[in-house]
Design goal:
The complex is a heterodimer of chains A (about 290) and B (about 240).
Chain A: H1 2-31, H2 38-55, H3 60-81, H4 92-113, H5 124-127, E1 129-133, E2 136-139, H6 140-162, H7 164-174, H8 176-181, H9 186-211, H10 219-233, H11 238-258, H12 262-277
Antiparallel strand pairs in A: 1-2
Chain B: E1 5-14, E2 17-27, E3 32-36, H1 43-51, E4 56-63, E5 66-67, H2 73-79, E6 81-84, H3 96-106, H4 117-123, H5 140-152, E7 158-162, H6 170-185, E8 189-194, H7 197-203, E9 206-211, E10 214-220, H8 226-234
Parallel strand pairs in B: 3-8, 3-9, 6-7, 7-8
Antiparallel strand pairs in B: 1-2, 1-4, 4-5, 9-10
Classes of the chains: A mainly alpha (about 290), B alpha/beta (about 240).
């Protein structure tokens, strides 16, 4: 029973890890930007959630739509006001710009909110649990997080493979130059894409902030987890990213069973082993 | 005949390098014209100048009175310029059908007689059975059909075809040009850029020979004397 419990908790935690990773994966897939600031953007929106709920006193479920809308606007602005001016011929340049954004965000958050760990509260739902099997209790919130991860991946897949905007995204991802030559407004595609990425960031941020503590320096750890989930799953495959997140989640939960200090380390170790065995990930987009 | 597309005194440069030095040409509705010339003569630069994709242009490119020079490529596509680019530029992540549909997203939204997927498939029945395959899995000739279909879906008034015969078998080239002839008969203005001089003269009503960024010779294709055209082509 203990084993099954660990497994289930790990799988559910994997949903959160996949949520961390979705925006990072999408941004790299479409724009070839390795967004080093991804984790810090997640933490920044956790603080946005904190401000709205703590200082304005609006309960999180009611505030969430506005925060997601704000995130979409912030994404559009980040592209329009910053990354649009960054040459992407050399992938190192946007990477360095994102690194700068990361440092700026961390320091702004430290100035604004101090170094104390914070947490969002969701009231009774946080503690609620259901018995899915005899003696196997699962937190309702963990289930909600996992369901949201699956729904978001499904939604993004539909968007990418079933809509006109998704066609444009894939065309730009194949070749920005060719798409532009044919008269596709690639700048508009990038702005929308960044807006969508930031919505996923905000969703991940709010759920993370309810699940546990965060502080201004939490970003890089989230970024690392996101990277690991993407690499384990195989670049470009969102369901693979979910699988990667689940593997990391299970590894962490199993590690925590040995000793609390082993939780994070176990995740990294499993990542390293898989990286050696399957360097292209479990579900590489293109075979061979 | 009043021209639909008029290019006059078009200069195009890439930084220090000037590729076009005052090029003039015009196309009327329903007309196929051929632009022939050797490698580096300025044929591709002419296409880029019209589409606004690269380089700094000077002069004038008018489509039915509307100045295109200075507009961004998306606006030029929406104005009614459809491009079949050199090398076809099919997107591997998109299926045949999605490649074609992409055109519909880029072009003129309001057209009297809009192109539809069905009409493209009527034009190129070979594509129907393969419509769900990745666009780049098809043969070169079929990829060229996708590229033409994609350009037609933008509901163009002028179709620019850049080296569509490159690397294709003669029978396929013949079939593609046969379809272009039909499209022109329906009123579409078609500009064909070709290195293959004879083929180009065969299928066009008029020709422009481009040399060193200028028109070195032009006239009716039927009356073209091969020797003089070759001279204008190679610049001897």
């Amino acid at each position: 029973m203990e084993l099954l419990n660990t497994l289930v908790q790990g799988v559910l935690l994997g949903g959160l890890f996949a949520l961390y990773a979705l925006g990072l994966s999408l941004l790299f897939g479409v724009m070839r930007i390795v967004n080093i600031a991804h984790g810090d953007l997640i933490v920044a929106f956790a603080y946005a959630g904190l401000m709205v709920t703590e200082f304005l006193g609006i309960p999180l479920p009611a505030a969430a739509p506005a925060i997601l809308l704000l995130a979409a606007g912030a994404g559009w602005l980040l592209q329009r006001g910053l990354f649009e001016f960054v040459p992407r011929r050399d992938p190192l340049i946007p990477l360095l710009v994102a690194f700068g954004v990361s440092i700026i965000l961390q320091n702004l958050m430290l100035m604004g909110f101090g170094a104390d760990p914070q947490k969002l509260s969701l009231g009774a739902l946080e503690q609620a649990s259901v018995e899915i099997l005899p003696e196997l209790h699962v937190g309702v919130f963990s289930l909600v997080v996992f369901a949201l991860a699956v729904a978001l991946i499904g939604g993004l897949q539909l968007m990418i493979y079933r809509t006109a905007f998704g066609r444009a995204l894939r065309a730009v991802s194949d070749s920005e130059e060719n798409a532009a030559m044919l008269g596709l407004d690639t700048r508009a595609v990038f702005r929308k894409a960044f807006a969508i990425v930031m919505v996923t960031v905000a969703i991940a941020a709010l759920l993370m902030a309810v699940r546990g503590n965060f502080d201004p320096a939490s970003g890089p750890t989230r970024l690392l987890t996101a990277f690991e989930a993407i690499v384990i799953g195989g670049l470009g495959s969102m369901w693979g990213t979910l699988a990667g997140g689940i593997i990391l989640g299970v590894a962490q939960m199993a590690g925590a069973q040995i000793d609390a200090s082993w939780q994070v380390l176990a995740g990294h170790l499993v990542f390293l082993v898989l990286l050696v065995l399957r360097p292209r990930g479990l579900f590489p987009k293109h075979g061979g | 005949m009043s021209a639909l597309l008029t290019v006059s005194n078009l200069h195009l440069s890439y930084g220090q390098f000037a590729a076009l030095h005052g090029l003039d040409l015009e196309i009327g509705a329903g007309e196929i014209i051929a632009v022939i010339g050797a490698n580096g003569a300025g044929k591709s630069s002419l296409i880029r100048g019209i589409c606004g994709t690269e380089g700094q242009g000077r002069g004038s490119v008018r489509l039915d009175g509307q100045e295109l020079l200075g507009l961004a490529p998306p606006e030029i596509t929406r104005a009614g310029i459809g491009l079949v680019p050199e090398g076809r530029r099919i997107f591997p992540s998109l299926s045949v059908e999605e490649n074609i549909l992409l055109g519909a997203q880029l072009g003129r939204p309001h057209s009297d007689d809009p192109w539809t997927l069905d009409r493209i498939y009527d034009l190129f029945p070979d594509l129907v059975a393969k419509r769900h395959l990745s666009g780049t899995m098809l043969s070169g000739g079929q990829q060229q059909m996708i590229a033409i279909g994609r350009a037609l879906m933008t509901n163009p008034r002028v179709l620019l075809c850049d080296e569509i015969s490159l690397g294709l078998a003669p029978t396929i080239i013949g079939r593609l040009y046969e379809q272009l002839g039909r499209l022109a008969a329906g009123g579409l203005a078609i500009l064909v850029v070709e290195q293959a001089m004879r083929k180009a003269l065969q299928i066009s009503a008029r020709y422009y020979c481009v040399l060193e960024g200028r028109v070195s010779l032009s006239g009716l294709s039927a009356e073209a004397e091969e020797e003089r055209v070759a001279e204008a082509y190679f610049g001897r």
